[in-house]
Each structure stands twice: as C-alpha cells, then as structure tokens.
Design goal:
- There is one protein chain.
- The chain is of the alpha/beta class.
- Among the domains are: 311-447, Up-down Bundle (de novo design (two linked rop proteins)); 453-697, TIM Barrel (Alpha-Beta Barrel), CATH 3.20.20.
- It is built from 39 helices and twelve strands.
- The strands form three sheets. The protein has an eight-stranded parallel barrel with strand order 1-4-5-6-9-10-11-12, surrounded by eight helices. Strands 2-3 form a two-stranded antiparallel sheet.
- The radius of gyration is 29 Å and the shape is globular.
- The chain starts with 8 loop residues before the first helix and ends with a helix.
- Residues 1-26, 28-33 and 199-212 have low confidence and may be disordered.
C-alpha cells in the first residue's frame, strides 16, 4: 500500500463520522428513547427501496449493492487489508452501468435516511409537547423570554430591544446543493405521507389498521419517481434557476410558518409580562444574495439583478392575491349582523370612485358584506401592483409612469389591512381579527412587497479599477491606483462633498467600469420605480482600507442613492473583512471612515447603524481553522468597541457556510458563543447550500431552527456577560499564532502542496461540473489564494480529509499544553467555562469525526508523484491524530464525541453507504484522468457529479 497509516488510528477513530445537526443538537439527545421507531421507518423505507431497485433494474444490481454494503460494514468492523483489496477489486471491475446503479442506490438511501431523521426530530418535539403540556421546550422562544424574566430584564428594556431588532437570515446560492426542485418536491410529499401515517412504528391505513394499500402505495410511488428522476442538474444552473430554487423554500415553508413563530413570541411576552401592552415589530426578516452577488460571477449583471427583484416581488404579490381571495371568503360578516367602522365605510366610498367596476361588482354580489367589498378593492390594488412589477420599464435618469392606484410600498397595504382589523376589533369581531387576517398582516409585515431583501456584492478591486478610470476621464486624478491610503481618503472625501456630477450620463468606459456604474444605477432605479424595500445593503468583498468603503459610497452618490442635501441615503455600505490581516485591521478601517464627516452623515441618514460583514470562509482558507475563528472573535470585539465609542449601532453580518471550515455548526450555539455585546439586537447570517434544504425543507424543522435562532439572539442581545479573563485571551493569542504558522507552512509554504491538492481532491472536476452558476476561482490561476473558499472546503470534504476544519489545531494545542500541567488545566477550564472555546472544539470534534484517514489514503493514491503523496498525506495524518488526541484530553473524554451515542448510531447507519461512494469516486477520477476514449468522458463526468452529490448527502454540512 502506498500510504502508511498511523498504527491503531483507524480502529480507534474510524467510527466518528457525524451527520449535520441543523442546530438541533438538544433535540438529537432526545432521539435515544425513540431509536426503535427511527430504525423501523428506515428499515421500511429500505425495504421499499429494494423492491423498487428490483423492479426498475434487476436483482443483479440489488445483489451487487448488498455485497458492496456488506463488505463496507465488514471494513468498518475489521479493517482487514484483504477486505480493502477486495473492495477495490470489485469497484475497479465495475462497468459504468453497474457503478451508476450503485451510486443511485446509495444516494437515494441517504435521501431517505436524512428525511427519516428529520421526521424523527419532528416526532420527538411532538412527543415532548404531549408528555409535558405547558412546559416550554429547550431553546425555544418561550424558554428565552422566561430566562430574561428570571434575569430581571424589564418589559421596557425588552420592548426597546424589540423596537430596534433585526434578525436577518440571508439565503445564498451554493454549489454543494445540487438537488433539483423536482427532487425536493418528491421528498416533501414523501415526508407528508410518512408524517401523517406513521403511528407507533408502522405504516397504517386511514382505518388505523396495518395496511399495504394507500399509504404504502404512496411511499412506493414517490420512491419509484425518485429512482426514475435525475438526481442532479445535467446542465449548469443559471442564476435565474438559483433564484427559483431559493424561492421554493419561501413558497413551501417560510411564508406559512412565520405567523406561528410570531404568535409564539407574542404569547410568551404576554405570559411573562402580562402588565405590558406589547408591540412586536417584524424583528425576523429575510434576505438573499441570489441575483445580487456579482463578486467573481460574470453571470450576475444589472439586468439580471432587476429580473431577480421582479421574480421575488411577483412571487410575494401572487401569494398575497391568493391569500386575499381566501380572506375575502372568510370575511362574510354582514352589516345586518354586526356593525363596521366609519373608516371602513369611508374606504369603500373613496375606492368606489377609483375603481367603479370593482365597486359595482362588490355591491351586486355582496350588498351587505362590506368587508368583502373592501377586500375587492385591496385585491384590485394588489393586482395592479403585480402588473406594475411585471411591466414597468426602468429608466435610471428619466421619467417613468407609475400607477398611483397600485400598492408601491408595503405600508400602504398594511394600512388598508389594519383598517379591516380595527373595524373587526371594534365591532365584536376580535376572534375573526385574530385569525387569518392577523396572520396575513404578519406576513405582509415581514415579507413586504419584496419577499426578501436582495444584497448586492462586488470585489473592492473592481471598484478601484472603475474609479481609477472615471477619475482619469474626468481629469480629477491621472492614476488613482497609485495613491496611498491617506491620499485616497482625502480625494474621496472631497469628491463626496462636491455637488457636481463626476460620471456623465452617457458612459464611455471599459465594459467592466460600465457594469460597475450601471449596477448602482440599476439599484437606484429599482428602489425608486419598482420596489423601495428590495435592496438594502451593498457589500464590498476584500475590503482593505477605508477608501474601499468611501469608493462604494461615491458610486452610490453618483447614482442618486446618497443625497445628503435632500436628507436621504438609500443603501447600507457594508465592508466585508475576510482575510486574517483584514479582520485584524477592520476596526481601524471603520474608525477611519467614521472620521470622514460626509461618511458620518451617511451613517446618520441610515439610522446610525453600520453594517459590517465578517467572512468565515476566506479567513479560514488564509490562516486555518483555529486562527481564523480567533481572528473573527477579536475583530468583532474591536469593531464593537469602535461602534460604542462613536455612538452608533452595529449590525454584524456573519458570512457562515455549512461546513465547519466555513463557519458552520449549530446556529444557535454559534450566536451564543459570540463576544459579549456584539450581537445586540441586529444580526445577519448567511444560509447556504444543503444547509438551506436541511433547515427549511420541512416547515416544522424550519420553525424549530428559526425559534432556536430567535432564542439565541434574545439571550445574547440582552446578556450581561463580560469579556473573558485576560489570561484566556492571551492563551488563545498564543495558540492561534502557533496554529496559523503550522497551517500556512503546509498550505502556502510547501511547494508540492498545490500538486497534492489538485490531484488528491476532485477540485478540477468540481470546477468543470454543473454545480453552480459561479466559477470556482475569482481569477484564472492555480493559486490557492484565488480559489473560492466554497470549492476549497467542498473538495476536502469529498476526499474525507476535511482539512480546513481542523488542520493546525492539534499542533497548536499540543504545543501549548506541553509547556506544563498548568497549561493543560487552563485549556480544560476554558473549555468548561467559555462558550466560544467550547463551541470551537465541539465543532472541531464534528469535522474530525467526518474525516476518515483510511478513505483519504485512497485519494492520496491519485497523486502521480508518490513521494509527494507520502509526505503530504503523512503530515495530514499525523496532525489528524494530534488534533483528535489533544481535544479528547481537553474535553476529558476517551474519544471524539464520546458523549453522543445517538450520533454514533446515526454514523453507523451512514458509513456503509458513504464509503462505497468514496471508493467509486476514486475509481471514476482515476479513469477520467487516464485519458479515456472521448465517448467515455461525458458519462464519467456525470457519474462523478452523482458521487459528489451522494457523498455530500451522506456526510452533510459539506460546503
């Protein structure tokens, strides 16, 4: 065997792969008593899958699948070299038809297991509520409010916090989520069947008796349809398709669950603070990057951004039209049975003049039902609002005819709906007002007429290049790019205060500069002519200085978005600090901006709120897991202090991915582990890739995830914690620096590392395959610096190294602990008492568990240079062992995740299916790289993509 493995490592640590937990770790602990139920449903689904395989292919495919799975199980138990050789021999001898059958079998099983585990979490929550009625479940909104009451938080302070609160999950497109919407639909229908029919561990008929008819037929129907459907896209998805995929979760889950979530908050407040008259504003809203994130993605253009806003606005208006139809049917209250308010009568009279046809129809059909007549006018204004979104042709600097009889702002729609509500409340109709109408009002309050706020993002380098060209063209500065930072700030401050236009209406620049200018002009046109709440923030990737922030503000000023003389600034300008150095300097950059009076005026006009985004992905790729997490922690603390000194509010935007190497892990724990005072009452966080499907695919899971986020933000935002002891911070300073140097020594200072990375991971294949609309690199180069963090992390997950989530951690902690017993005791104390450090090491355990050095060794064999493979893999393997060992010592456990038996059981279900997919992927990569016949390239690439999707589904949180 080429790669030598550390003796005893595999038998000790192979069974520590753990699945994605969706922020539901506390719920997972409740699964143990109900394990038989989960095992039963998985067995039943597995049996149905076997029948489908036999029907759709033949018994030979099923026999091969069972043989490979049995061998994988044996490998997990014995680790015999001859078993590995037998597995490799079987996989090497597969025809493409045989491998396709195996990939399909294992991948579909993962989909069924994942669905079963999600349903099990739902059932556990349901069982707990039935067993303990009236007792709030852990990490719920009720639990958070109860805790705040116990801590002495007053109703006035809580109301003040709510008045300014903004909790904003932001959905982003992501290449690790390759499943098609049609597949998601089938899984959703299957979940509905199982959730309603699975009682006591068995499928039952509507009579309550065991049956092999309706429910089982429905299960088999969906599994058969899944087998016959393409699992993944056969062509690269467009940005528009990514937007549509994101819309799926709003339409199928989020819009419907939001009223119940707010009901929880209102009821919890009323229960614990009954003396207060609560007003609950839309504290939880949603954002999106799909169609706005143009950093390194040439497919995101100004017209595409406009089209995205139209799609979102159309979707929510169509939804409201359907809801208004339903509401009209419900509001059949007759004026002969109950009174109506004068406001309602005036509303009908005024709108009858504006919409005579609607008025005549209403009077004819519902002569006594004034609420229905009013709903007819609201519906007509919504219809015209939808037409306006569909038909309005934007003109940034010209007149546009606006339909003044259509809703343009959500406040107009809310005013009319609250008028209906007020009339009901003052005429003995409170029960009706509190039902569908109240839920509808809450949806409009949260989603407005735009559904989700679209963020726009571009790289600072693009702005700099564009400004250099613009300033030279205007005769202001011959070469802006050659100025130092102080000179740039002075020039930009002067230009921002200069009332004359800098950019002509007709653009005579390079295509890149024109695109930058037109992006801002499109945003301006969207906000003025299409949807005033559609775009809120402009994010600057790789912000390196205050000049990068001021440059974006200048382009905004030129597009009419920032007009201090007229008293408005329509766009947050948000720096994104990504690398270790940028995070370290972020507070000084922000401070330098705030010293510029015109920028300070911009902040005042934005409500004295500064949004700052911190990047978990590129910082990890730059300095490694431990150093990046500590840099993020320190950056937040420093930026918090600047905001406090300057008297402004801070909204931190956490650019977290699904994988641990990109800031992944349970969201609620991550929020509670932030530095004291950094959450406040404003927070944004990205939701990416397969994490979106995992958290929002089923409404009840989505409700649980969002209540946990609200729980964490309520506690963290109103906390009274102090910063950790200085001794702890100094220890992390030392450990992080050791880790940074060790990580960079391998990744950036070892010349052969790039050769290993390119050969031992499927990075080249990932970049070629149809996984997303965005290119894998920002630039055409092989440099790791230019590679996007998503494919970087994703490729290391695929080859089971999981390196970005832990490399450098073991060396640093072991070196620090070796300095004396007191040092190890200090680390153990930090683990016990410091939420940040505990969460850090818990996440490291998770990702180390996902690593598998035995499988990783197979990928190392793909490296042509045997010496390079042996050296690099050997170092990775030794650091894996160090990391695993020292974490166990600090956490005082015998092996990774020793206190998570439920997770261990889940691992046991998955590994025999993940391992064969890894073996198959290695074999397919080998064939593809060995210059196959031209006719074989496309089938090989498609099957590699299928293994990528299957492994991602098996391991979870991979990107």
């Amino acid at each position: 065997m080429l790669i030598r493995l550390v003796p005893g490592l595999l038998n000790k640590n192979r069974n520590t792969t753990i699945p994605r937990q969706n922020g539901l770790e506390s719920d997972m602990k409740q699964l143990e008593p109900k394990r038989d139920r989960l095992a039963t449903i998985i067995a039943e689904l597995g049996d149905t899958l076997k029948k489908v395989i036999e029907e759709q292919v033949d018994s030979k495919v099923l026999a091969l699948e069972e043989k490979v799975r049995a061998l994988a199980n044996e490998l997990r138990v014995s680790n015999k070299p001859e078993s590995f050789q037998q597995m490799q021999s079987i996989i090497a001898g597969l025809t493409l038809e045989q491998s396709a059958g195996l990939i399909k079998s294992f991948s579909l099983f993962f989909a069924l297991v994942n669905l079963s585990e999600q349903l099990q979490r739902i059932w556990v929550l349901r069982d707990r509520a039935l067993a303990k009625p009236g007792v709030p479940r852990s990490e719920s909104i009720f639990a958070a409010i109860a805790t705040l009451k116990e801590q002495g938080v007053s109703a006035a302070d809580l109301q003040k916090w709510l008045n300014g609160a903004a909790i904003l999950p932001v959905f982003t497109a992501h290449p690790t989520e390759a499943r098609r919407r049609t597949v998601l639909d089938k899984l959703r229908r299957l979940a509905d069947v199982l959730d309603t029919s699975h009682v006591g561990g068995g499928l039952v008929s509507s009579s309550g008796l065991p049956s092999a008819s309706a429910d089982e037929s429905a299960v088999r129907e969906e599994i058969t349809a899944l087998w016959q459907s393409d699992d993944i896209r056969v062509v690269r998805p467009s940005v528009t398709e990514e937007v549509k995929n994101g819309l799926y979760y709003f339409e199928e889950s989020i819009i419907d669950l939001i009223p119940a979530l707010y009901d929880d908050l209102e009821q919890a407040l009323a229960q614990h603070y009954p003396e207060h008259d609560w007003r609950v504003p839309p504290v939880l809203r949603f954002g999106s990057w799909m169609g706005g994130d143009r950093d390194g993605n040439p497919n995101v253009t100004p017209p595409l951004t406009v089209a995205t806003v139209r799609m979102l606005a159309q979707a929510v208006r169509k939804r409201y039209l359907r809801s208004m139809e339903e509401l009209s049917r419900r509001l059949s209250n007759s004026s002969h049975q109950a009174g109506v308010s004068d406001d309602l009568k005036v509303f009908i009279e005024k709108n009858a003049l504006l919409f005579p046809a609607v008025a005549e129809s209403g009077r004819t059909r519902y002569p006594r039902e004034l609420y229905r007549q009013a709903c007819g006018f609201i519906r007509e204004k919504l219809r015209r609002s939808l037409l306006a979104v569909e038909q309005t042709q934007l003109d940034w600097d010209g007149p546009v005819e606006m339909d003044n009889l259509a809703y343009f702002e959500s406040a107009e729609l809310l005013k009319d709906m609250r008028m209906l509500q007020h009339s009901l409340l003052t005429n003995k109709g409170s029960a009706v007002a509190a039902g569908s109408l109240h839920r509808f009002i809450r949806q409009v309050d949260v989603f407005g007429l735009h559904l989700a706020t679209l963020d726009c993002r571009q790289h600072s380098e693009r702005h700099q290049n564009a400004l250099t060209e613009v300033l030279a063209h205007a005769g202001v500065c011959p070469d802006y790019s050659k100025l130092d930072e102080d000179q740039r700030i002075a020039l930009l401050a002067a230009e921002l205060n200069n009332p004359r236009p800098l950019i002509p209406a007709k653009l005579d620049f390079t295509p890149e500069t024109i695109e930058t200018i037109e992006t801002f002009r499109s945003i301006s046109a969207i906000l003025q002519q299409l949807s005033p709440d559609a775009i809120d923030s402009y994010i600057i990737s790789m912000t390196r200085g205050a000049s990068d922030i001021l440059t974006a503000l200048l382009f905004a000023r030129e597009a009419g978005l920032f007009q201090p003389a007229r008293g408005f600034s329509r766009l947050n300008i948000a720096p994104l600090f990504e690398t270790g150095a940028d995070l370290a300097g972020g507070a000084k950059i922000l401070e330098a901006c705030l010293r510029v009076p015109v920028y300070r005026e911009h902040i005042r006009l934005r409500g004295n709120v500064q949004e700052v985004m911190i990047g978990y992905s590129d910082s990890n790729k730059d300095v490694g897991f431990l150093a990046a997490n500590w840099a993020l922690y320190k950056a937040q603390s420093a930026i918090r202090d600047v905001a406090a000194r300057e008297g402004i509010e801070l909204r931190l935007f956490h650019g977290r991915g699904g994988a641990i190497g990109r800031g992944g892990g349970p969201a609620n724990k991550a929020i509670l582990a932030q530095p004291p005072g950094t959450v406040g009452n404003q927070i944004k966080l990205t939701e990416q890739g397969e994490v979106i499907a995992d958290r929002y695919g089923l409404p009840k899971i989505a409700h649980r995830h969002l209540e946990q986020v609200l729980h964490a933000v309520l506690l963290a935002g109103l906390e009274r914690r102090a910063d950790p002891p200085k001794e702890w911070e100094l220890a992390l300073d030392r450990v992080a620096e050791l880790s940074r140097k060790y990580y960079r020594k391998l990744v950036y200072e070892t010349p052969s590392f790039i050769e290993y990375f390119r050969a031992a991971t499927p990075i080249n294949e990932i970049s070629r395959l149809n996984l997303g609309s965005r290119p894998g690199s920002r630039k055409k180069s092989d440099r790791i610096e230019d590679l996007r963090a998503i494919p970087w992390v994703f490729s290391w997950m695929q080859n089971r190294h999981t390196l970005p989530g832990w490399y450098g951690l073991g060396y640093a902690l072991e070196s620090f602990a070796a300095e004396g017993n007191a040092q190890l005791a200090l680390l153990q104390e930090m683990y016990e008492r410091w939420p940040f450090f505990r969460t850090l090491l818990e996440n490291a355990q998770m990702i180390l568990g996902k690593a598998d050095m035995q499988i990783a060794a197979r990928y190392a064999e793909l490296v042509p240079n045997r010496a390079v493979a042996s050296d690099i893999f050997g170092e990775i393997q030794r650091e894996y062992q160090r990391s695993s060992t020292i974490i166990c010592r600090i956490a005082k456990i015998n092996r990774l995740l020793d206190d998570s038996p439920v997770l261990q059981h889940s691992i046991d279900r998955r590994n025999p299916y993940v391992d064969p997919l890894s073996f198959i992927q290695v074999e397919l990569l080998r064939r593809l790289r060995n210059n196959p016949d031209a006719s074989q390239i496309a089938p090989l690439e498609e099957q590699i993509l299928l293994t990528i999707s299957g492994i991602a589904a098996g391991l979870k949180n991979t990107g």
